[in-house]
């Protein structure tokens, strides 16, 4: 366990995760929204399109891509 700064809200917390407990809930909601959006919009190829389509901040989308939380899509970063 490490003392970390949440990548999402900036608060300090102790965990093995990159985000605090509150933000884990938000991350999960965002990931399911993005997954649905990807399912329904074949041909999405950029994180920017995902951000525009879902209203989710691009830095969060890039973080989900970096830690492989999103389905395997061919994104041009
Ligand atoms: Zn947080």
Q: Number of DSSP strands?
A: 2
Mean pLDDT metric: 89
Order of helices and strands: EEHHH
**How many structural domains can be distinguished in the coordinates?**
1
What composes the largest sheet?
Answer: 2 strands, antiparallel
Residues in helix, %: 40-55%
Alpha carbon gyration radius: 13 Å
Shape: elongated
Order of strands in the sheet with most strands: 1-2
Q: Kindly name the structural category.
A: mainly alpha
Strand proportion, as a percent range, falls in 5-15%
User: Which kinds of small molecule does this entry bind, naming each only once?
Assistant: zinc ion
Distance between the termini: 31 Å
Plain-language structure description:
With 77 residues, this protein is mainly alpha-helical. The chain has one domain (21-77). It has helices at residues 21-40, 47-54, 58-66; strands spanning 2-5, 12-15. Strands 1-2 form a two-stranded antiparallel sheet. It is elongated. The mean pLDDT is 89. Residues 6, 8-9, 11, 19-20, 22-23 line the site of zinc ion (ZN).
In short:
By secondary structure, this protein is mainly alpha-helical. Helix content is 48%, strand content 10%. It has a two-stranded antiparallel ribbon with strand order 1-2.
């Amino acid at each position: 366990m490490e003392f970390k700064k949440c990548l999402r809200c900036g608060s300090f917390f102790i965990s093995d995760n990159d985000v605090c407990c509150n933000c884990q809930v938000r991350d999960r909601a965002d990931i399911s929204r993005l997954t649905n959006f990807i399912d329904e919009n074949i041909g999405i190829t950029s994180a920017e399109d995902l951000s525009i389509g879902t209203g989710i901040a691009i830095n969060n989308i890039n973080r989900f891509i970096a830690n492989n939380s999103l389905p395997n899509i061919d994104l041009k970063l």
